[in-house]
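[Automated response] Your request has been received and processed.

Submitted sequence:
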Amino acid sequence: IKATRDPEWKVRWDAVNALGELGDPAAIPALAERALRDDNAHPRWRSLWAIASIQRLGGDAKTFFLAGLDDPDPVVVRNSAVALAFFGQPEARPELLRGLKDPDDFNRWEAVFSLKEVPSAEVVRMLRLMLDPTAEPVDHVRSEVALSLGTMGDKGVIPDLMSTLRSDPSPAVRMRASLA
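Generated structure:
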């Protein structure tokens, strides 16, 4: 547990991984802390896997993530929403929808990636808009949008995906649209 706070992200990742493999519920608070506050995505995301390995659907960690939605630090709020979405909790949706407008493309990508776990009509509507390269100029974000729309299974997006397949300037986005 102490190693989850090591200055090196790789050490934190290894510690989180080991805690997930051990399966001891006593690790949940440390893992939730990593999921909420780690400055590196690798131990942050691996913490979610570790929590799921210990307690299906997040168990006790859900209270940490719900509380994180009210944290004064916007990074903790975003990380809380990502964590809640990982466990399929719809409370994540409002913050993740706000994340679609984040100026940082990784944060937008992470919001898109997470929203597929908590789909709704509003999520589909917002993601459809992001297929347009003028609305979302970053290829890897649009690529994730296409794949997420396909994953959610709403047949109403097929025309949008077909249009993306025919006209998107990025081969990677077109490939993901074809997979979707």
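Summary generated for your ticket: The CA atoms of residues 58 and 115 lie 17 Å apart. The radius of gyration is 17 Å.
If you did not submit this request, please reply to this message.
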